[in-house]
Amino acid sequence: MFNKMKILLMMDQHAVHERIRYENLLLRYKAQNGGELLSTNLREPLAIKLPTEACNLLLRNKILLKKYGVNLGSLKENTLLIRTVPQCLITNSNHCNNKKILSKIYGLLNDILTKRNTTNHANMIPLTVHNAIASEACHGAIKFGDELTLDQCLYLVKLLKNTKFPNRCAHGRPTVVPVMELSELERRDTKKCGKKLNFAFLKSRHWM
What positions does the domain MutL C-terminal dimerisation occupy (predicted)? Predict the structure, then answer.
């Protein structure tokens, strides 16, 4: 019921579960104080070469980098040594794949430095981190066509209501779409059921 209007909603079970998993994973990958991203030690520190200006900029922002799970030091001119990275960037498939890890590290460093002067940057999630967690949330979510019991559906709805952004999955797809106004149907005479539903009104209420 919304402003005394009954609405029949259609829910995308994959998108719903992905949103739930994304927010749970995000909490799991953060330290207990809710600030820093949990980091993991690389089996072998990785050396990255960057222009001198970029190296100096990163070294001056070591505290900020640590907040996002990155611990680095200077190896030699134009070369930095990466010792730790966020846990969410390491999976079983790429733990030994330095090429994949390096690609993510470069992306993460660029994200952090690009957003460091942005207002409220402390609460922002770097795009590289978001993409990694969103991918994990998606791959482990209920699939299209998976059969669910009524109790399982109700439980998903309950969990979705407790998320911060229940209207979209981690990749931006809608989790819920309005199908029709039941209150409108109740008001109509059954002989006039051909009347179009007021979807413009629904959109104006940000359901879509």
Answer: 1-148
